[in-house]
Amino acid sequence: MFDAQSIQKDFPQLRRNIHGKRIVYLDSTATSLKPTAVIRKEDDYYKRYTANVFRGIYTTSEEATAEYERARALTAAFIHAGSPEEIVFTRNTSESINLVAYSLLTHDLSPGDHIVTTIMEHHSNFVPWQQLGAERNIAVDIWGITPQGTLNFADLEKLVTRKTKLLAVTAASNVLGTINPVSKIVRAVKQLNPKCFVLVDAAQAVPHMPVDVAEWGADFVAFSSHKMLGPTGIGVLWGTQDVLDTLHPFLFGGEMISEVHVDRTVFKSAPHKFEAGTPHIAGVIGFGAAVEYLSALGMQHVRDHEEKLVSYAMKQFDRMGGVTYLGPNDARIRGGVFALQVKGAHPHDIAQLLNEDNVFVRAGNHCAMPLHESLGVPSTARASFYVYTTEKDIDALIVSLQKVKNMFG
Predict the structure, then answer these.
(1) pLDDT at residue 107 above 80?
(2) Which of 145, 152, 154, 181 is most enclosed, with most CB atoms within 10 A?
């Protein structure tokens, strides 16, 4: 049985009281809380076997290397990758996406080529392509959405042509909550242009639902540790071995080298050719523990839990009146993210008043300013759910929002 109330006991921060009140953490879309198992695993590295990886033949270095590579194998299995060698560790989703932008497209763009991204993207999957387009003088087209907050498939045939080099799309919007049908998108793109790469920002998908990269069929998938119960400072780029072998190294330095001579350098094979210098060893090891924790819960159970919470929350919002949210009203295609508006109240005022009740939400444009601008909404207050969120937490949110309504109504 999936029991969020019991799961809360694994998260030390949720045992903290501030001014005599419990914490209601509703900002997991920004970063998730960390269970004791992850904290202990990272701490264990620093206490018992601190050493650099790959470089030592002594015991603790071999232990650290084994744990580091074990995390890579766990990650590969978690997303159903073909092998651990398809997993590249970066600092975050942003760096994973920039790796593709710099390593592939800066070396492989021709006049007339163009890129497609969507209006619902996080800045991490929007700005790199915008800047690359300006730098290389190539067009970047934007895939729009329907009034319901889903991608408009009627426009796809007009956007993807034989000159399209890459389509970048989020698997789940961090504002609208929309869960995009990645497999369907990839099939449609490959039919229109088999040579077009597809990159998926899965930062809001991998932590919240089962993901099978082989079934998706994309060329690249990027996501982050800190959004899935793991440490900050760790990201993942997945790509098939064939695709990764075509990429040029993004950073240069130690450990990604096979040979260095005065006149030339030979790089290692993927994934290590992309992991220059000493990595965040403790973070990767802690991330491995987070993957194990989520695997034990079962990702379908995680998704089912969030779908129930989304249905419950939508009913409560509808009963309130005066509170609206962006995105679909169908829990089957929506993640546990609600970008809220309260009539008469500024989002920052909403967040500040909720904070008085220890209900923690985020206010702003959530690194999705083009989306907010396209909707004519300057900013929103965002509440987001995860494995430790309960209906009781949503009830606390509703009570606090009612206070906001009373103050500004």
Answers:
(1) no
(2) 145
Asked whether residue 106 carries a pLDDT value surpassing 90, the answer given is no
Q: Which secondary structure element, helix H or strand E, spans residue 201, and what is its range?
A: strand 197-201
Domain ranges of the chain: 4-30+299-408, 40-296
Reported as a single tens digit per residue, the pLDDT across 152-181 is: 999 999 999 999 999 999 999 999 999 999
A 10 A CB-CB count for 9 gives 13
* Token output for 327: 């995105």
The per-residue pLDDT for range 221-234, each reduced to its tens digit, is: 999 999 999 999 99
The amino acid occupying position 1 is M
Q: Is the pLDDT assigned to residue 136 strictly greater than 90?
A: no
Q: Domain 4-30+299-408 adopts which CATH fold?
A: Aspartate Aminotransferase, domain 1 (3.90.1150)
Q: Catalytic site residue 367?
A: yes
- Looking at 73, 243, 367, 398, which residue is catalytic? 367
Q: Tell me if the domain spanning 40-296 has CATH number 3.40.50.10490.
A: no
Confidence at residue 1, expressed as pLDDT on a 0 to 100 scale: 78
What share of the chain in percent tops pLDDT 90?
93
In sequence order, which ranges of 144-181 are alpha helices (DSSP H)?
Answer: 156-159
- Please name the helix (run of DSSP H) or strand (run of DSSP E) that holds residue 164, with its range, or none: strand 164-170
**ω into 84 cis (within 30 of 0):** no
220-224 β-sheet, strand order: 87-90, 235-239, 220-224, 197-201, 164-170, 114-118, 139-143
| Integer CA distances (angstroms), 350 to 109, 211, 243, 404, in order | 46, 34, 46, 6
| Mean predicted confidence (pLDDT) in 196-222 | 98
Identify the CA nearest to 123 among candidates 397, 298, 383, 367: 367
- Positive or negative torsion for Cα 19, 21, 22, 25: negative
Q: Sign of dihedral through CA atoms 32, 35, 38, 42?
A: positive
User: What is the radius of gyration, based on Cα positions, of the chain?
Assistant: 22
Q: What is the mean pLDDT of residues 12-37?
A: 97
Rounded CA gap, 135 and 118, in Å? 20
Q: For residues 140 and 170, is the Cβ–Cβ distance under 8 A?
A: no
Pairing of strands 337-342, 257-260: unpaired
Q: Which of 194, 281, 170 is nearest to 231 (CA)?
A: 281
